[in-house]
Amino acid sequence: MTETLRIFVGVTLDLEAERGVIGKAIAELPVQAPIEIRRTPPLLPTHEEIFERIANCDRVYFLLGNDITAPAGLEWETAWRLERAVLPLRRSPRPTPAAQEFQRFSPRPWLDFRSATELARIVSLDVARLLQHPINRYGLTVPELERLEIYIRRLDQLQATLDKEPSGAEGGGVLLDSRPRSDK
Amino acid sequence: MGLKESVMQVAAGLFVERPARAKSLGEWKTTLETDGVAVDQRAAAAQDPLQASKVLRHISGIERWGQRRLKIFLGGPATRDEYNDYRPGTDLTLDEQRAFFRQTRAETVALAARLQTAGIGDDAKAPHNDFGPLSARGWLRYLDLHANIESKKIR
C-alpha cells in the first residue's frame, strides 16, 4: 500500500515567505510522489488544530527567523512532544533575546541557511532521501527511483562544491603574498 | 486533585474527548479498521524490522490494556493497572508482531461494535491512568490516535 509523505512546515512570522520556497522545492522534485504539506491555519489556530496537523506527520520543517513568534513556539513544542522527526532550520542573523534563548533549547542542532536557494536545496535533498525508502513506502516507479538517485547525487555534489567554497573575508579577493618583491 | 491531574484532564478534553465527539461509535469502529490496516502496512514496509517490532509491541500493549478499560463500559470489573503486562513477547519476529497487532486491532473493532450495540453514551466513563475518566468514544479515539502517532516512528 502506497503511503503519503506528510510534511508539516512551521515558520516564524519573518520567514513566512519561505513557505513558498519549500512548496516550490518539493514541487520540482523529479518524481510524482504522494506528498502532503501542512501548516497551522493562519487565523487564530487552536492548540487542538495544531496538534491534529502535526500528530501524524513524517517530517516537520521548523524555520526560525530573528524572533520566535506565535504560533511557531507551540508548533515546535507540539512536534517534539509528539516525537515527530523535526529538522530545525535557521536564518537568524540578528536574533532577539527571545530567539537566542529559544535556540538554546533545541534537542537537535540547528541547520543554518543563508538564502532561499540554500533552503530549497536542503529541503529538496531531505525530501528526496525520505522518498528513497528502501522498501519503497511511497510507491515510486523504477524510472522515478533512478531519477531520484541522480537528483540526490547532483545535489550532494553541489553541496560538496559549496562546502569547499570560501565564505566571508576568505572570499573577499584579498591576496596576501609573502614572497619577496623584486621591485624593492 | 493535583496540578498534574488537572493539566492532564484539560489535555484529555482538548485532544481526546472533543475530537472523539466528531464521530459516532460506529464511525470510530470503521476508522479503527481502516487505520489498523495502515499501521500494519507501514510495519510491513519497515526498513528496520527490529525497531518496527518494538514499536508494534508497544502499540499492541497499549491497545490490549485499553481493551480492559473498554470492557468496563460493558460491565467488566474496574481496574487501574499499568500497561506493561499486556505487551506481547519481546522474542516475536516482525511478522509475528504484525499478526499480534492485527488480532489486537480486530478485538478493539469488535469491542467498538459491542459498545455501539449496547448504546453506550458519553456519560459513562472509564478511567485512564493519566487522562482521568474518558468516555467510550474518548477511549476509541485515544487508541486510534496512539497507534497512528506511534506507527510514524517506524522508518
Q: Identify the CATH architecture of chain A.
A: 3-Layer(aba) Sandwich
Please summarize the sheet with the most strands of chain B: 2 strands, antiparallel
The CATH C-level class name of chain B: Mainly Alpha
**Count of individual helical segments of chain B:** 5
Q: What is the count of distinct domains of chain B?
A: 1
Q: In percent terms, what proportion of residues of chain A is strand?
A: 5-15%
What is the N-to-C order of secondary-structure elements of chain B (H for helix, E for strand)? Answer: HHHHEEH
User: Strand order, biggest sheet of chain B?
Assistant: 1-2
How much strand of chain B?
Answer: under 5%
> What is the number of domains of chain A?
1
- Rounded to the nearest angstrom, the radius of gyration of chain A is 20 Å
Strand order of the largest sheet of chain A: 2-1-3-4-5
Instruction: Extract low-pLDDT stretches of chain A.
Output: 168-184
Total strands of chain B: 2
